[in-house]
Structures are given as structure tokens and as C-alpha cells.
Amino acid sequence: MNKVFAITCHKITNPLVHTVRYLSSFEENIVLVHVDKKANIQDFIVLKNNNVHLIPNRIEVTWGHITQIISVIELMRFSLRFNYEFFFLLSGDDIPIKNNNKINTFLEHFFDYNFIHYQDLVTKYINPEDRVRYNYPKFFYFREKTVITKAKKLFVYRFKNIFFRNKEFYRIKNKIPRMYKGTNWFTLKKDTVKYVINYIEKNEWYLDLFNKSICGDEVFFHTIIKTNNKLKIFSDNKYPHKALRYIDWYTGPQYPKVLKEEDKQRMISSNNLFARKIDENATKDFMECFLY
User: Fold this and answer.
1) What pLDDT shows up at residue 123?
2) pTM over 0.85
3) What is the pLDDT of residues 173-214, one digit of tens each?
4) In degrees to the nearest 10, what's the CA dihedral of 84, 58, 100, 24?
5) DSSP three-state, residue 111
6) Domains of the chain
7) What letters, b where the CB count within 10 A reaches 16 and e where it falls short, cover 95-116?
8) Edge-to-edge strands of the sheet including 187-189?
């Protein structure tokens, strides 16, 4: 089963090295790595292999910003030069929790499907349009939660319909497809990746629409895929997370939780293929225990 694993990252961590080395140990797999332009590329040369490629078009990525979307587009475009059936989007905080053989068996069973998770009744509903119909100021992309930043955000939320409306959104609203939101880590068929890239190239206005969005990567790709009802989306009640990722948004103290040894049994019993976020100093024994 030919697979592309596309990883977006900004620093060398134990999970990143483990994931790249394990997945690339199988000739059928291609690993593509987008390294944030802010990082020193020399730190990542250690990852290179015959089937591991550090993609050349690097983006300076900011959390929550359109640059997150653009980095994924670059990975998708680069992937199209290879022969594969499935494209996995991963972060540098992900590890496989099923071995390569089990991943292949699962994909063979559901070969025609895309694995992408759309928001459901388990979590509080967020209107996807709210991510793009306002022009979010730069301080929305700051991860630090200072009192001043919180006060500024409160002002924006209170007066967003007066001062922060995205005029372009309302100008072209009639041609904007219905928007959808979900988890920004997914597994797609190659034909779906081609469709996404083709849609972006034929509709240049669509990417521009997300220029001042917030966390638009949770809307951008999900919406495009829903414009084509011929693309099959996996749905099975035995798998609550349709992208087959184990992510703990509930127990804390971080959200999502940084996964450690104490989470091992829940990760194993989840039936997912990958897990995140893994502690950057995770031990080899912990990360390898899922691969037997």
C-alpha cells in the first residue's frame, strides 16, 4: 500500500524522529516534511533518507494564521509527483499507534474512503463562517494569554460586526460554498488531493478569503471536500474520530493533552491509527510499544 505521510513541524523532537524513521523504514511509504521557515533547516538534515524529503518551498508558519493552510497546500502539491493511494497529514507531535501492517489492513478494508473528521454533537458547535467573515487582528495569533491580549480579543468579539467584518466575504457570499469545520489532521485519497489542489487553482478567491481568518485550516479543506459529493467520507460508529487520530481534548491540563505513559492504555484501546500530542521528550520504549 503506497502512502504519503506529510508532516508539518518546526523543531526536532523525539516523536518526530521516531515517526519519520519508523514510517520511512518501509519502501512503500514516502515521508514529506515541511519545516517552518523560522527553523534552521540544518537541524532536520538528520531525517533525510531515500524516501524522506524535506520539501523546498518552506513557509514561515504562525499558529491560527493562513500560513498554516499554505504549508499544507505546499505538502499536497509536492506529494503529487509520487505514486500513492493515501495522503496522511501529520504534525511533528504525532506518532503511529498501529504498525504499518495494521494500517495497511485497515486501509485495504476501507480503500475507497477519505478519513476526515467533521465537527459533531460531541463538542460545542462552532459556526465555520465565523472563522472567515471577520478580519482578525494580529494579536489573535499570539499564543500567550496576557490580560491585555484577552481585553483586546474581548473588544473584537463585542464589536466584530461593526469594525471587523470581512467585506470580501460579504461581497462574494453568493459564490462561497457552504462551510464546514473539523479536525485539521486527515487522511485523503490521492484523487481527493488532486481535487483540492485543482479547486484552489480554479478559485483563487477562495484562498484569499482566508487571509485574515483564525484557525482557518479547520475549515478550508473540509469545505472544499464537501463541494464534491462523489468523494466518499469514512463514517463508522466504532470509530468516533473519523480521521483515526487519538486526541484528548477533555482531561487536561493542556488542551489537547500532552500524551504520556499514563495514557498508553487509552491510546491502544481507541482503535485509532495515530495519536497526538506526544510529549517531545517521550521515550523510545513508550513510542515503540504501540508497534508490536
Assistant:
1) 76
2) yes
3) 999 999 999 999 999 999 999 999 999 999 999 999 999 999
4) 100
5) coil
6) 3-123+179-291 (3.90.550.10), 128-175 (no CATH)
7) bbbbbbeebbebbeeeeebbbb
8) 52-54, 29-35, 3-9, 86-91, 187-189
